Amino acid sequence: MRFSGEGFRDWADIDVDEAQSRASDLEAERVRLQAGSSRLEEIARALEDNAKQAEAVANSIEQLTGRLATTAARAKQAELDKNRDDELVANQPHGALAAARESYPALDERLGKNRPKRAAECAETENALAADLHQRIDRLNKELGGYAQSLIQSMLKVLTRWPELRGDMDANVDARQEFLAYRDRIATDDLPRFESEFKEQLNKNAIQELAGFNNWLHRQASVIDERVERINEALGAVPYNPGRFIRLEKEPTNNQDVAQFRSDLRNLTNDSLALDGDQYSEQRFLDVKRIIERFRGRDGYAESDKNWTRRVTDVRNWFVFSASERDVETGAEWEHYSDSDGKSGGQKEKLAYTILAASLAYQFGLEWGAQRSRDFRFAVIDEAFGRGSDVSTRYALDLLRRLGCNFSSSRRCRRFTSSSRT
User: Which residues form a coiled coil (predicted)?
Assistant: First the structure.
C-alpha cells in the first residue's frame, strides 16, 4: 500500500504513537479524577443508565412501529372483508335473511365457545358445522331406514293376518296414515261394538269348549280307572305268591307339564273361581290364548309344542303305575314294586308276566271270567316262554286264561306237552 502525505502539514498530524500516548494519559487522568470525586461517579452511572433506557425505548419504538403497521394492514383487510360481507348480505333475498336470522339462537347454542370472532373464521366454522350436520343426517337416515323396515314388517303382519285389507292398504311407509286410521276405527268403533260379543265368545264358547275338552279328558281318565279295576279283578283271582295277590296301583304323576296343564284347565273351567271385571276377562283371555297357541304350535317352538300337546293330552301320562303285593286275608301291603331292581329272576319273570297281561287287558279291554265274547283273543308265545321257572310260567298261563285269551306256542315248550291251552 502506498501512503500519500497530501493534505497533512505537520508530522504531529500523522504521529500515531504520540496520539495514542496522549489518549492513554487523558484516560488515566479521567479515571483519577473520577475516583477522586463521588459526584462524577454518580454522573457516570446516570449517563450509563440513560444510555440503556434510550436503547430500550428505541427497541420499543421499533416494535410498536411494526405492530402499528401490522394492525393497520389487518384493519384495512378487515374493512375489505366487512365491505365484501356487507355486499354479500345486501344481495341476499329478504326471505332468506329472515330465515337465517331465525337460526341465530340455534347456532349460538350449537357453537357455544366455538363461535367465530372474525369474519375470516366463518368459512372454517361453516365447513366444520356442515360436516357435523351431514354426519348427523346420515346417522338419522340410517335410523329412519331401520324404523321404516320395522314399520313395513308390522304392516305385513297385519295384512297377513287380515288379507282382506290388501285391497285398500299396501305395506309401505306412505300408507302409515291409512293403518293409523284403521287402528283408530277399530279402537273407537269396532272394539266397543264387539266387546260384549267378545266376552260372550270367551265365556260361553271358548271356555265351554275347553270345559268340554276337560270333561272328555276326565272321562278318558275314568276309563283307565275302570280298566285298572277289571285288571285287578283278574290279578286278584290268581295267587301271586302263597297267601298273597298282586294289584296295580295308580297315582298322579309328578310331571310338571302335566300337573300345570291340569291346573290351568281346572282354573279356566271352574266357574266358582270366576271373578267380575275387565281385568279378569283380559287375564282369562290371555290364559286361554296361551294354551291354544301351544296346541297350535308357536313360531319357533312347533316341535316342542307338539311333544308337549301329546304329553299333556294323553291321559295315560297323567298317572304313574306300580304293583302292590297284598295279603289275601287282610289286604295289607306286603311289598310295593315300582320297578324290578333288586328282585330275583323268578320275581322279575312274574312281574314281567303281570305287566304283559295287564297291558293286554288294558289295550284290548279284556275281562276275566267272561263266558261269551264277540272277539277272538289269541296270543302266540315262543319257546323262550317255557324256559323260566314252572311257578312263573304256570302263573302266566293261568292269568292269560282268566283273561279269556287263546294262546299257542310257536314250538313245543320244554315242560308243557300241550301246544295250546284255553
Answer: 16-81
